[in-house]
Design brief:
Elements: E1 3-9, H1 15-24, E2 28-31, H2 33-41, E3 47-48, H3 49-53, H4 68-75, H5 80-88, E4 93-100, H6 104-109, H7 114-119, H8 124-134, E5 140-142, H9 148-151, H10 161-190, E6 207-212, E7 222-226, E8 237-240, H11 246-261, E9 266-271, E10 274-280, H12 284-294, E11 302-310, H13 312-318, E12 323-331, H14 333-339, E13 346-349, E14 359-364, E15 367-372, E16 384-387, H15 397-407, E17 415-418, E18 423-427, H16 433-444, E19 452-455, H17 463-470, E20 475-478, H18 485-495, E21 499-501
Parallel strand pairs: 1-2, 1-4, 2-3, 4-5, 11-12, 12-13, 19-20, 20-21
Antiparallel strand pairs: 6-7, 8-13, 9-10, 9-11, 14-15, 16-21, 17-18, 17-19
Helix pairs in contact: 8-10, 13-14, 16-17, 17-18
Length: about 500
């Protein structure tokens, strides 16, 4: 035969039909080790690469396809010089390369030891794909069984250059993703202590978990891409309801992250990526009641994250209003049966545990920004009281914990008021801090009396403390660090409000 297809695949799905399709077009088959044996066992006429090269694999299979005769057959162009060189080394004219790589990702997800994973790093397969994709004008490159139908739709000679270029693009993308997974594994082995907070080259790789109906608005295309070494919404259990939308996922992430930051049995309600209510109690039911009563208007159509197991009684409460998504660590059989009454309600089970280190990526025109995700907790050891009558912070631990965590998840400028383990006022997304404070305190009303008030950043003037005094706030926690801190300190002393500085800001833009 004058033309050949080279086959070297770890996934044999659809291979027999593809091979037969090539043979029907008069294209001969060359295959490596396991692929050759598979086809030969099926009675398919196939030539082994060893017969072509006269070279047997060595180093336990690490070297088997790296041979000039193979690459001359793939990389040669239709020029007199290249054709002459190909004939000189007795290389066949290879018109198709079908390769899928060692299943590195599979073993990576299974937590294989580094020694095992290193042996799953494909060398020859990547080289074959790159060579074929580089020479797409003459060679068709196929990297996934899902492409076989497109390859067999017409004779190979009739495939347009444009379509070949598309296949080459898909091949290079596959190789880039594969290499990114390897890079991520090496970074993980290095450990965070050896990793740069801002490396010169940042690699981000994701596999599409599913197309989303649309993005924030119906005219925007969107999809969810999962990261191989991460757990999260791609590993959650969807008990009922439609797949989560773009907005659902963004809101659910905020709810889940805030609930994960809080103690067990906490409940968080989120609307438009902003907490509208959060509660900390001695039971999940009590915490939900606090989160609901914090703002019974805004929770409508929102997302609720419950850090515990939902029982039947609580499930009944959850069905009394319209919610988009309910996320919990678990659901009793009775709870799942009750929730089925709301067929469109998305019911999601997943663990509440923040990763030790994770990055946040945000695109801007011309590139993207990367930062370590904020981790929010009250810095108890370095907390400083700078004004007001002396207090024992342990008496305020629950409310300080909730207020400080919640304010870090509200859009800046942010103020959160907490009383009795319940957010009673939330002001966020304002262009100045006094408006955020007025919004939160107005929502709190009488519930602001004796409450803890938290600010995500320092007070630039004494006006916020003055506003807090009008509502009889019991204690204020803020980062401090303003050149006008003395104004807030003086106001706190004047009105007898304990003022605590954390020394740590938590903007959320």
């Amino acid at each position: 035969m004058d033309q050949w297809a080279l086959l070297s695949v770890s996934d044999k799905t659809g291979l027999l039909e593809l091979a037969q399709g090539f043979l029907s077009q008069g294209i001969g088959l060359l295959a490596s080790g396991g692929t050759f044996q598979f086809l030969a066992d099926k009675g398919v006429a196939v030539t082994s690469l060893e017969d072509l090269t006269g070279f047997t694999e060595i180093l336990g299979g690490r070297v088997k396809t790296l041979h000039p005769r193979i690459y001359a057959g793939i990389l040669s162009r239709e020029t007199p010089g290249d054709i002459a060189d190909r004939k000189t080394v007795q290389a066949p004219e290879i018109v198709a390369v079908v390769v899928n790589l060692y299943p590195f990702e599979k073993f990576q997800k299974e937590g294989a030891d580094p020694a095992v994973l290193i042996e799953k790093i494909d060398i020859g397969g990547v080289a074959l794909i790159r060579a074929a994709a580089k020479n797409f004008d003459r060679v068709a490159v196929v990297v996934d069984p899902s492409q076989y139908g497109r390859v067999l739709r017409q004779p190979l000679r009739d495939v347009t250059v444009s379509e070949r270029r598309t296949w080459a693009y898909e091949a290079f993308t596959q190789v880039a993703y594969y290499d990114a997974l390897i890079s991520e594994s090496f970074a993980q082995w290095e450990g965070p202590e050896h990793q740069s907070d801002s490396p010169d080259v940042y690699v981000l790789a994701g596999r599409k978990s599913g197309a989303l109906r649309y993005g924030e608005n119906p005219h925007q295309a969107a999809a969810f891409y999962s990261q191989a070494l991460q757990t999260g919404f791609q590993t959650a259990t969807l008990h009922q309801g439609k797949a989560l939308s773009y907005n659902n996922l963004a809101d659910a992430d905020t709810a889940w992250r805030l609930a994960s930051t809080l103690p067990d049995l906490s409940v968080v309600a989120v609307k438009h990526q902003t907490p509208c209510g959060a509660g900390v109690g001695t039971s999940l039911g009590e915490s939900y009641e606090k989160a609901y009563q914090a703002d019974p208007v805004s929770i409508f159509g929102g997302i609720v994250a419950l850090k515990g197991t939902v029982d039947g009684a609580l499930a009944h409460r959850l069905t009394e209003i319209f919610l988009e998504v309910v996320i919990a660590e678990g659901f009793t059989p009775e709870a799942l049966a009750v929730l089925q009454a709301k067929k469109n309600l998305r019911v999601l089970a997943m663990a509440f545990a923040l990763p030790e280190h994770s990055d946040e990526v945000r695109t801007v025109t011309g590139g993207f920004l990367v930062q370590r995700r904020d981790r929010i907790s009250v810095p108890w050891q370095s907390l400083r009281q700078v004004a007001g009558p002396a207090v024992n912070v342990e008496d305020y631990r629950q409310d300080l914990t909730l207020a400080w965590a919640a304010v870090g998840f509200v859009k800046s400028n942010a103020i959160v008021v907490v009383n009795g383990g319940q957010t009673v006022g939330i002001g966020g997304g304002q262009t100045n801090r006094i408006d955020a404070a007025r919004q939160a305190l107005a929502q709190a009303g009488d519930r602001a009396r004796g409450a803890v008030m938290a600010s995500d950043a320092f007070f630039p003037f004494g006006d916020v403390m003055a506003e807090a005094s009008l509502h009889h706030v019991g204690l204020v926690i803020e980062p401090g660090g303003s050149v006008r801190d003395n104004e807030s300190i003086e106001m706190a002393n004047l009105h007898g409000i304990p003022l605590l500085f954390t020394g740590e800001r938590h903007f959320r833009h």
